[in-house]
Amino acid sequence: MNITFRQLSYLLALQRTGSFSRAAEEVCVTQPALSMQIRELEDQIGQPLIERRPVRLTRMGRLVVARAQRIEAELAALEAEVRRGGGQVNLGVIPTIAPYLMPRALPALGPGLRLREARTETLLAELEAGRLDAALIATAEPDVAEEILFEDRFLLAGAPALLALNRGLPPEALDPGELLLLDEGHCLADQALALCGLARRAQPFDLGAASLATLCALVGQGMGLTLLPELACLRETTPEIALMRFDKEPSRQIRLVRRRDADQDDWFTGLAGTLRAAGTGLVAEVRARFP
């Protein structure tokens, strides 16, 4: 029997996508090439692994997929250990943290860091696949080991005249028609909605804003209000934008996560310490400037 990792990876892609065409696209081969490798794997096993119409795993296919997933995880862990042993750490960071925290932290992190900016769900998938060693996120997630670094509080941002009309109000009392949020899928938008007790459908405008810079530009033109994390305050505020703190300040916890089965050597402890120092220093500056 001569089963290859390529054959197993193609089977895993087929299991994830449920389609020969989408699986071929995922692994960057033609559909006939993928189908041939699946056929050869079935010949090696001596049993069908896939029911073709509709595409679904047979009982033996499920058993092979379970083993292949363990092999894939072990290989990813091995690659990560070799990479870190050579002094390289692959770090993922969400977009509402990266442009504000990383310029402060990078000088202390050294040349071995490789940075990847993406949304939370993408970073977690790449962490699980072993392409990332750690991720800097702002939500509690299951099945990862985490180190909470610091608290990042939310301020209300708006043009001075509009902000004055909302002074003293708690987040849940804000007018949903005035609140501008990031595009759906950003965890910061979900956190803001939860704080204000709102649903996405309650928002009058579908702005599709992908960055806090875009939101702040709109806010500065008097188009509405937004919740701005402390991390972003120094960079995103302009003379056209005023900030207001709430009496009971809502916040998010910034955390560094890694796979539970990954080794926790000095690299993770050191990375957490450096990011914590940079983050606490930055929010301290913001709190002094915007008390």
From TrEMBL:
UniProt GO MF annotations: DNA binding; DNA-binding transcription factor activity
Annotated ranges, domain HTH lysR-type: 3-58
GO cellular component, one term: protein-DNA complex
Origin: domain of life: Bacteria
Database matches in InterPro entries: LysR_HTH_N, LysR_subst-bd, WH-like_DNA-bd_sf, WH_DNA-bd_sf
Keyword Translocase: no
Ranges in a coiled coil: none
Protein name (Swiss-Prot/TrEMBL): LysR family transcriptional regulator
Organism of provenance: Pseudothioclava arenosa
